[in-house]
Amino acid sequence: MSDSKTQLALFGGPRSIEREFPRYNHIGREEMEAAQRVLQSGVLSRFLGAWDPDFYGGPEVQAFEREWEQAFKVRHAVTVNSATSGLIAALGAVGLEPGDEVIVSPWTMSASATAILVWNAIPVFADIQPDTFNLDPAAVEKAITPRTRAIMAVDIFGQAADLDALAAISRRHSLALIEDCAQAPGALYGERHAGTVADIGVYSLNYHKHIHTGEGGVCVTDDARLAERLQLIRNHAESVVGDKGVTEIDNMIGFNFRMTEIEAAIGREQLKKLPALVASRQALAARLTRGLAGLKGLQTPVTRPGNTHAYYVYPMTMDPAVTGVSRERIIEALNAEGLSVGGGYVNLHLLPMYQRRIAYGKKGYPWMGGPYGGTVDYSKGICPVAEFLHERGVMHIGMCQFDYRPGDMDLLAATFRKVWASLGAL
Ligand SMILES: Cc1ncc(COP(=O)(O)O)c(C=O)c1O
Fold first, then answer.
1. pTM
2. 115 lines ligand 1 (CB under 6 A)
3. In this structure, are strands 200-204 and 192-193 parallel, antiparallel, or unpaired?
4. What is the dihedral of CA 32, 35, 38, 40, to 10 degrees?
5. Number of H helices, E strands in the chain
6. What is the pLDDT of residues 28-58, one digit of tens each?
7. Three-state DSSP class for 163?
8. DSSP classification of residue 235
9. What is the helix (H) or strand (E) element at residue 417, kind and residue range?
10. β-strands 200-204, 217-221: how paired?
11. Mutational test site, ligand 1, from 91, 109, 116, max ligand atoms within 8 Å of CB
12. Distance from the CA of 111 to the center of ligand 1, in angstroms?
């Protein structure tokens, strides 16, 4: 029998965590002064959707891009108004044709796949690795058909995917490789930054990320031709290509994906803070991992040799056969203790859009009625690892949600230990 102190909050005992953690917030005086500087100039954006010096945006946007290139050791950075826009621009830039297939992880935020549909191309979901949650290269290889044109790797939770293996597959099959590194700014893949390994990488600067500009994103590439195509898609390509003398006009469709001067000025300050913010997430994660050691059936995050993990999220897998308790019940108990723990991603192929194949209009386009002649499968069961993890196997703690102090990790670990000590009662 447990005494009253160790009794789970779920059963009326005292909560392990009594207080609210402060919100993760790294907007300070520097960002306020930067925004003020732009406001005083009166030039809140200087983009012009025509072939003109202002086609490239104003001084803050251009300075931010040069600084991003330096920080990430990459030749070209192209800012956009969100990572969603950046992914759309990236897929257009690599020359997708309507009806092409693009292989993507089902274990990601929905925009990774909808960006494919925007070009009337077809997302094909390949399964993930059970320990890193990133695309499994073997599953990718199996999913390749004569229609495959690109692979979208997602550096999920803050760790780079198996990029060398995916790049080798891409080269072997003449595919483009895009890296959705929305969650992994500051993570390393060997010597390189996550995001800079694929043909194009796309970072997010939305409010929830390590660093942010409210909304925003950055595309990076070492390829000058792709950089130009990204800039064109960002900014009303169709009205620019003629005067700019661009002859390769496929996918040169007009969007306004432009970042404002205020966002760029804030982004420049945020970028300076990124290394310390990532390092502090890593220190927090290491302390939490030490605190969780030895809990039966619980696997703490796995980082591949050579990788560093940016810990946008601290993911754990749980084996219900070992704990003897469902993931849902354990999460319920942890939440009752005052600890915010979530489950996994809904697998994208199981969303109504894919299950019913209703995207543009009601008649099944682009799967039907267009140039696509393939037989992509979205049935439950096509990605057993991702499906199991979502339904039963994963728990996660958001590391850019609260402004945790190092000692807080001991409290989090003690909360897990309290729940694990009472698994039998759950
Ligand atoms: C993996 C991933 N891809 C894409 C996005 C889209 O980013 P944004 O909100 O900047 O459009 C997100 C944002 O949550 C994400 O986590």
1. 0.97
2. no
3. unpaired
4. -50
5. 14, 12
6. 999 999 999 999 999 999 999 999 999 999 9
7. helix
8. B
9. helix 406-421
10. antiparallel
11. 109
12. 6
